[in-house]
Amino acid sequence: MAAQTAAYVALLRGLDSADWSRPTDCTEWDVRAMAAHVAGALEEGARPMVLLRHMRAARRAAVMVDGLNAAQVHDRRGLAGPAIADEIERLAPVAIRRRQRMPALVRRMPVPGNDLPRGSTLGYLFDVIYARDVWMHRVDTARATRQEVKAAAGDDEVVAQVVRDLARFWEGPPFVLVLDGLAAGRWQIGSGTPAATVCADTVALMRMLSGRPGDLAMHVTGDQTLADRLRAARVVF
């Protein structure tokens, strides 16, 4: 999480004034609003009273996570992009320390609502989903501002956790997944003899699994139905 927030802040520092209003793949957010969401999530980790306030506001939303996101962005409606970047840099180490010190009993508590896979705990939310969220928003921001997604420490772990979650809920035939580009690697999804080998770009696959727009180009050797099955798969980001 520390590495991902640092890489995200570095990307934000390089934006010009026009970049902050560019649309992103999250259609309700421009680059500034996306950064406001990241800052708000960190503030919730750093200041528990803010989290409680946001949770109360989110009860009016059909989906709790959407309500939390809206509250995070609303709190920063008057802040310019560079000020939000400063806030992310300031809040990140505080939020990370607080989450690391959270008692084990609390970390094992189930996440309220139905926004995450059944059985998800607060520890899973804090340690896995939040870092994954920052990783993807770094990709979103780079795409929106037509910049290269630069490698950062921790990318390999973020991608490996996404692949692990894909495997947890995979119901199709087993296959070998080969990713190239950022955080390249090779994994087997499912147990038994692989029915196919699927090769794809890492960032493109992560975007597809998150439900973002665009078609995933992949090379499949073996069972060709794996391509359609993989395009239908989703992992929470």
Report on the structure:
The protein is α+β, with helices and mostly antiparallel strands. It has two domains: 2-144, Four Helix Bundle (Hemerythrin (Met), subunit A) (Up-down Bundle); 155-232, SCP2 sterol-binding domain (Nonspecific Lipid-transfer Protein, Chain A). Helix content is 54%, strand content 9%. It contains ten helices and four strands; from the N terminus they run ααααααααβββαβα. The protein has helices at 2-13, 31-46, 48-58, 64-75, 81-100, 104-107, 122-144, 155-168, 202-209, 225-232; strands at residues 175-180, 185-189, 196-201, 218-222. α2 (31-46) packs antiparallel against α7 and α7 packs across α8. 36% of the residues are buried.
Tags for this model:
237 residues; alpha+beta; Four Helix Bundle (Hemerythrin (Met), subunit A); Nonspecific Lipid-transfer Protein, Chain A; 2 domains; 10 helices; 4 strands
Short description:
The protein has 237 residues and is of the alpha+beta class. It contains ten helices and four strands.
* Overall form: globular
- For CATH, the homologous superfamily of the largest domain is named as dinb family like domain
CATH fold field value of the largest domain: Four Helix Bundle (Hemerythrin (Met), subunit A)
Binned, the helix content reads 40-55%
CATH class of the largest domain: Mainly Alpha
Largest sheet: 4 strands, mixed
The CATH architecture of the largest domain can be named as Up-down Bundle
Proportion of strand residues: 5-15%
Domain unit count? 2
**If you compute it from the alpha carbons, what radius of gyration comes out, rounded to the nearest whole angstrom?**
18 Å
- Give me the count of strands: 4
